Amino acid sequence: MCTLFFRAVEGxxxxxxxxxxxxxxxxxxAPILVLAGCxxxxxxxAALPDHGGERRNIKMIYPARGDSLxxxxxxxxxxxxxxxxxxxxxxxxxSGGNVKASTHAIKLRPGTAFPTVPxxxxxxxxxxxxxxxxxxxxxxxxxxxxxxxxxxGYQETxxxxxxxxxxx
Length: 168
Hints:
This protein is mainly beta. It is built from no helices and 13 strands. Strands 4-5-6-7 form a 4-stranded antiparallel sheet, with no helix packed on it. A 4-stranded antiparallel sheet has the order 8-9-10-11, with no helix packed on it.
């Protein structure tokens, strides 16, 4: 059976749902802004909670079946799993925001979707305590390949020329 995860509006707020039969089931007890992905085994869903207008970029992990408690995965990050479920790729921005983001390939134990997450979540400062297999100096717009040595992404550059044009 296939499971579909989606975001839907209830009242004026968004919630994450799963559909693995005929009846959608709510996954997130609190409203979310973005549904960020699901684990390869379909047991966990990542989402950005709605903090009522307050800007906080915290990725929460919710159990897809409601059989355990949600937890904070990371702050100011994006995540994606490898196709085989052996690695979790986390792109972390430093807390100051001035340092370029980097992507960390974190090796996962067989049968798990996450490493042991420190209290308060994974940050650029504590990611080195995890089993990091490789660090990519490419931040956002990172797309994992089949192996650790392959990835895709794009880089944006902007060039501006300012010319004085006399208006008469």
